[in-house]
Fold Sulfotransferase.
Amino acid sequence: LSNMDNKLDIYRRELVDVQGVPLFWSIAEEWSQVESFESRPDDLLIATYPKSGTTWVSEIVDLIYNNGDAEKCKRDAIYNRVPFMELIVPGMENGIEDLKKMQSPRLVKTHLPVQLLPSSFWKNNCKMVYVARNAKDVAVSYFYFYQMAKLHPEPGTWEEFLGKFMTGKVAFGSWYDHVKGWWEKRKDYRILYLFYEDMKENPKREIQKLLKFLDKNLPEETVNKIIYHSSFDVMKQNPCANYTTVPSFDMDHSVSPFMRKGISGDWKNKFTVAQNEKFEEDYEKKMKGSSLQFRSEI
């Protein structure tokens, strides 16, 4: 088999359930590697449901760790500075192996729902930052991401994809379970729970929360520098942050750029009135009894 044939056969495959959560087939096959991942006590875990500001908060935290030195943060692409722990694709990437080679303190990215996180993170009482974004914007962003990132199955039409999203039949499972699961867990562990909409509205305030959580003191001018270098427009132009360094057979930016709009409320350009009504009704049921509150626009 030529290399290209191999590449074709890893893409657009159906998701595989791991303990009831749909994941990429390659993660499911190597699940034992993920499960037995050894965290270190000084690891910082960045956990999100996909398309919720993962890359954004990763860039902010890396800037904090490097005292606002933007040049240092251009030492490598964001996915190498903050490896995606559970992402394993045979012959292409292995987040677990990448992390093993990294010096401490490590930044670790995960999209796993709380119940699938390797137990060593709880055992080591690692600090964790969780970012949540409103469901409607996530659904739209995820739809475009499915189109361009070919490890996902075909998304189908927007209507079809929205149905899958609502029933949790997408990679990393149900958004509703994900945000609620991590929200509950924050009561017992060192988890800073942030909201994408709050970060958009007032990045300075949210970065201050991060600094406090990480026991870091930075002068005001450094904080302002971090705000500037982590802004959407600057990150979108930064090859170390915008994923354009990923080969196009893997992520096709001509279909949709990885960093598409980075705004709140874009769902209004995609949802029909009927879809929105149906979504809202279903949302009420699924989020009933949770103290979590989201804003679908700012």
Remarks:
- The mean pLDDT is 96.
